[in-house]
Amino acid sequence: MTFAARASSQLSNVPPADDHALIRDGIRALLEEIVALAVQRVLDGETFVSVRTKDRAKSPARLKAPKPSPTRGLTARQSQVLCLLADGHTTKSIALNLDISAKTVETHRAQLMERLNIFDTAGLVRYAIRVGLITA
User: Fold this and answer.
1) Residue 121 burial by Cβ neighbours in a 10 Å radius (0-12, 13-18, 19+)
2) What pTM does this model have?
């Protein structure tokens, strides 16, 4: 009789209530081996990292750093003004579109230029294209 056949016949003689005990004992033995390996590696001056943790650390989602928002540091209104400026809208058109005064649009434009260290409208347009707020 082969080993597999003997093991199968022995397991079939085990009452169902003992199945849980066998599984529990098997898991306990496996965990003891893992803990012993971890302790030995640490005592040897190495680092122990579980396989699951290694796999999670290697996953592509974890390797990619989130891209910073191109409008990070800008207010929502400044971002709106920047997009409209880059789309070619005039100050008056932006003011009407956003229901604000032309002077407020000029203030937002000045704040944008200061925050982004860009000193002309063409530069703001190039910035908006570069960061993908608009397409050329």
Assistant:
1) middle
2) 0.49
